[in-house]
Amino acid sequence: MLKKNALLLFLISLSFSVFAQTTKNFRFTPEKAYNGKPITIWYNPSGTSLAGKNGLKAVVYQYINYKWNAVDLNFSKADKEWKADFNIPANCGLLGLKFIAGDSVDNNHNLGYFILMNDKDRAGAMAPGAYAGWGLARSPKYGKDIPGYINFKGVSDTATYHWLNQEISYNPNSKPVLALDYAIALKGFMGDAATPKLVLVCKYLTRPDATEADLLKARYIYQNLMGKKESSDSVNKVLTTRFPKGSLARLVAYKSISQNRDPDSVINASAKFLQDFPEYKANAQFDLENRINYGVVYQNIMVFGAMKNSPTDYVAKYADSIAYNMLTSIYYKLVGIAYHRKEGDMKKVATYSDLLVRRYESFKQNRPENMRYLSPSEWQKEYKRNFVSIIAADHIGLLNQSGKYELALKYAEDAQAELNYSQADINNEQALSLKKLNKTELLEDLLVKSMFNNQSSPEMLAMLKEIYVHKHKSEKGFDAYTDSLKNPADKVKETEEIKSTMIKREMPSWSMKDLNGKTVNSADLKGKVVILDFWATWCVPCKASFPGMKIAVEKYKNDPNVVFYFVDTEERGDTYKAENAKFIKDNNYPFNVLFDNKTGDLKTNSEVYNKIRSVTMNSGIPQKLIIDKNGFLRFVSIGFKGSATGLADEMSALIEMTKTAE
Question: For residue 67, which phi and psi values (nearest 5 degrees)?
């Protein structure tokens, strides 16, 4: 114990010296900062990643009431330094700073720039939160640091215990907030020798006027830090008696939802759970520890309710209750899947999209509590990035389908501010809006910019051809024109990247039947470049890639030495062949379809696909194989990146390289 105490004193002195250490890059005046008082922050970028850059800003992390809240701060040039005045909030204990210029960031080599507050009302004392913030900001394993700010292993439990002990000693009102973190640090510092002190912590947390949150912390300490089941059970009895509709009952009810198997039972159990245990009364820390996720409950009741055409519109009822971090998952399951598969009532899907987007937009000017570590400007970027990358394309598409072209165009233009025409599905929907609104000049500009990024669709190519023919009175030269619009640097880069992925592997022999029942054998295809595109009727990205594959197929339709086969694989049930034939016919795809074989005890028709996987060393569909005239596998292309023209160009490049492969 003497050794541990000596180590503690050493670490304490080291921590103070590190904190007090000044750097050539960062200082503040006056030399002592007080909560509720103004300071001037000075920054010298010399020797940092921000040297020589203009427009310097900072994100200031404020530790207020034992939580982080970030704000933006603009700096002005002051000779070789940059400076900014800052009014420290009255209830702030610690500041952390991250300096930014453009895309470059300086956070003191991942150690952070910190300012500890003195207390304006107590001479010689540190402000409430100063010690705790200083300890927890550098202790990432406690989950109370600033996400993404610093990046190192963190200080020891010994040091964290010291700072939390200081906080509780000088600011007794912090005990309920910090008791559990203090106990965890104490256990990490002292091991089993911490038991007497942990008993005292639990005694405080189980005092007569203890809140449910206090008792839950005591339960955690007894159960997870001390292994005292009897004491933990005793706390459980108190919790059950005093809080019959509290967190323990909520945990039981939550677990019971997953025990239901049929949709109606899940809907009923979820509805009762939300009625009995409204989220605003929940203990967030307990939920995190016990994996209670209200978002999953909302998702269950909405998705199953929609699937069963429930008389209660659960989407309308609960949309405004969904937490930000669950919105994208619920949107995908409720809207995205149906929209891309074109399944169900699209009017109802569009209504769901409107409701969920309205909820999403409610967060635009109201950062969620768990995102307060992002400054307002950082939050706006995060918000826009998530909306554009996950939700925008589907929502715009549904607005177009509903004839709301002006509104669709507004969302598309907002998305382009982030994407700059780099996402084909957004480009396509914007083009449809512009065409419907007869905005021809804007449409042509969009089509040209989209072609430059090679992020276009067959519909967009048709629109561009229409404009081209109107201008030139002929489609002669159109292919050369579209090729000239593409970024030459991207074409060179793509060619080099493709070359680096060329392989030469023996392919297993195979035999499959087509839509008409005719057998196709691999041995009969020698002398040709063969493209096998493995897909399934249930695979959304597989189907999404087909417009691009159609462009490629049509480009080579007159080349007798290139053949495409679209292999339907990994299907269950007995109806997939009919579904396949209908899908191909309905979409007018000029594809040669083959059906993978179902043999032995296979549950799916995946015999050939299983053979291929052992050669490609890859799984997942869509998966496209390019095989040379001698039967060797030369390229494997997996997934779909979203651009029809981009995929068509990729296929063309792969085919041409395979033609000349030795």
Answer: -140, 155
Within 10 Å of residue 557's Cβ, how many Cβ atoms?
A: 10
Name, in order, each residue with C-beta under 8 angstroms of 310's C-beta and a sequence gap of 6 or more. Answer: 267, 304
Q: How far apart are CA 44 and CA 26, in angstroms?
A: 6
Distance between CA atoms of 355 and 339, rounded to whole angstroms? 15
Q: Please, are residues 222 and 235 in contact by the beta-carbon 8 Å criterion?
A: yes
Backbone angles phi, psi at 595, to 5 degrees: -105, 125
Distance CA 519, CA 512 (A): 6
Ramachandran quadrant class, 600 (left: phi over 0; alpha: psi -120 to 50; beta: rest): left
Query: How high does pLDDT run on average in the chain?
Result: 92
What is the pLDDT, as a whole number, of residue 619?
Answer: 78
Q: Could you tell me the two tokens for 607?
A: 């015999």
Cβ-Cβ contacts under 8 Å for 556 (sequence gap 6 or more)? 562, 564, 655
| Burial (Cβ within 10 Å: 0-12, 13-18, ≥19) of residue 27 | middle
- Residues 6 or more apart from 210 whose CB is under 8 A from it? 218
The edge-to-edge listing of strands for the beta sheet with 519-521 is 505-506, 632-638, 623-627, 529-535, 562-568, 593-595, 511-514, 519-521
User: What is the Cα–Cα distance from 561 to 526, expressed in whole angstroms?
Assistant: 10
Could you give the CA distance from residue 32 to residue 125 in angstroms, rounded to a whole number? 12
pLDDT band at 620 (very low <50, low <70, confident <90, very high): confident
- Tens digits of residue pLDDT in 268-294: 999 999 999 999 999 999 999 999 999
Q: What tens digit of pLDDT does each residue of 134-191 get?
A: 999 999 999 999 999 988 888 999 999 999 999 999 999 999 999 999 999 999 999 9
Instruction: Give the CB-side neighbour count of residue 54, counting CA atoms within 13 A.
Output: 0
Q: How far out from the chain centre does Cα 448 lie?
A: 31
Q: How far apart are CA 93 and CA 369, in angstroms?
A: 19
**Environment class of residue 524 by beta-carbon count within 10 Å: exposed (0-12), middle (13-18) or buried (19+)?**
exposed
What is the DSSP pairing of strand 593-595 with strand 562-568? parallel
State whether residue 530 is helix, strand or coil. Answer: strand
- Each residue of 201-235: pLDDT tens digit? 999 999 999 999 999 999 999 999 999 999 999 99
Band (22; pLDDT cuts 50, 70, 90): low
Mapping DSSP to helix (H, G, I), strand (E, B) and coil, where does residue 106 land? strand
CA distance 266 to 591: 42
Q: Residue 475: how many CA atoms within 13 Å on its side-chain side? A: 7
Contacts of 179 (CB under 8 A, 6+ apart): 201, 204, 205, 214, 217
List the alpha helices (DSSP H) in 21-50: none
Supply the Cα-derived Rg of the chain in whole angstroms. Answer: 31
| Helix 405-419 / helix 424-436 crossing angle, nearest 10 deg | 140
